[in-house]
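Assemble and predict.
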Amino acid sequence: MFVNNDVMNATTKEERHVIQLNDPEHPVILSTEGLHVYYGKKEALFEGDLQFASNQITALIGPSGSGKSTYLRSLNRMNDRIATVTGKIMYRGVDINQPDIDVYEMRRRVGMVFQRPNPFAKSIYDNIAFALRLRGVTDRHQLDEIVETSLKQAALWDQVKDDLNKSALALSGGQAQRLCIARAIAIKPDILLLDEPASALDPVSTGQLEDTLLSLKAHYTIIIVTHNMQQAARISEYTAFFNQGRVLEYDTTSHIFTNPSVQVTSDYVSGNFG
Amino acid sequence: MNSKTQNKVAIGGLYGIAGFVVLILLALLGFILVSGVPQLSWHFLTAPGKAFLKGGGVGVQLFNSFYLLILAMLISFPIALGAAIYLYEYAKDNWLTTTIRTAIEILSSLPSVVVGLFGFLFFVVKLHLGFSILSGAFALTFFNLPLLARSIEDSLRTVSDVQREGGLALGLSRWETVSRVILPAAVPSILTGVILSAGRVFGEAAALIYTAGQSAPALNFADWNPFNISSPLNPMRPAETLAVHIWKINSEGIMPDAKAISSGSSAVLVIAILLFNFAARYLGKRLYKRLTSA
């Protein structure tokens, strides 16, 4: 790795810089306090204290193995069976990292879209409708409406509206990923977590996906892990920089990319390592 | 020898071995079919057997084979499915899981004649089930369960973990994810495994000799009351299957056309198993295609 002590000592920058949010228009909806994640005995995330503003896009960036995906997956407890997560995850004033939380109900509020598009081996319609049916929405008319709205919000409706009964596995990568977004927002979450959602997509699909995310933030709080720094710069209001299991810097995206307070962040966003 | 020649020799050797295996199969199939197919007729396939005279058929044995197969599958499939789901979807990686897996592996490598003798002592004698279809079906379950559980577990493994995460991320419980997302996606592969194991069960003889018995009393195919002794559906009657029949007439058959009946039965058995195999491939592929692209 490029960063060494000489470089660190040569600067007068801070070692760590994390802002507290204070925007009355976009109150904090989710925050973590003293979050630590262990895989077995190995600690993968040492510290992750972040606040997320509602109806904004927050990007989590950092080199591979920096803990950003681990952090994201902890937010809706997808790490439950894989890792030990300690600390608080406050969602609208409730600590959702407690054993007695109904984790299934919680995940309906905090949805997730993954790196590899994972449509189910069902029709496009059923990919969206079946989770709703399981929750008791059986009225065909209502289901039709939700399917249509979700697909429209995910900017996929025009391409698939005549093929709703076809298998979702026949969709292209970009379409499949937008179907996964439609599926996630159909159950009306508050927060949408995205784990490198564009890394398996071509540039055109990536652009469409970014447009989709920008239009979605009116309704959802979006937290996105990305390897693509231009992507973070294009779509997010806030950016957190992870390195070696720590949040080294958290600030507005423009601050991170134009005048970062921490030297390592500066090295990373200018492409010196990572 | 340079690496190019080495490569050629290696490929040649592998082709030779593969060809040898295919040759053995073709020779076996050819011999069985050539000597057996001329014996086949509607009469042969449907008539009951004759103990001392020529001209008997294998109708009863054929029916018994299918009936036993269905019963054995009805018993073993739900258990195997449950075991596979538990092992792959729920079980933590600890000593208990390892023990269960090892047990399944040992059970699957037990010689079928040992399974048959156990079935005789336990089901036939101890539980007083007698030489019956039910005893045979239980013995076949023991024989089939580990193979089926393994194959279903492999089917579940073919469904990517991102599908499981997808289900959980929608707020589905683990059971909802398994039953609504994973199982439907695994159905083509599970079906293939079931049909292939059906082929093995269909041809099994040793496990049945001491459990389902070696006699095939004539059946009254007009009587479908399972409580009547001559009804084909009665699970408590002794039921010699086709595979057992082949063994029986070759070791102690006293009818004059024993050899012809044995050849004919072998052909029927082999054709049925081939059909199972082709059906497994065909249905599995078709189902997969239907699920993945409409």
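Residues 1-11 of chain A have pLDDT under 50 and may be disordered.
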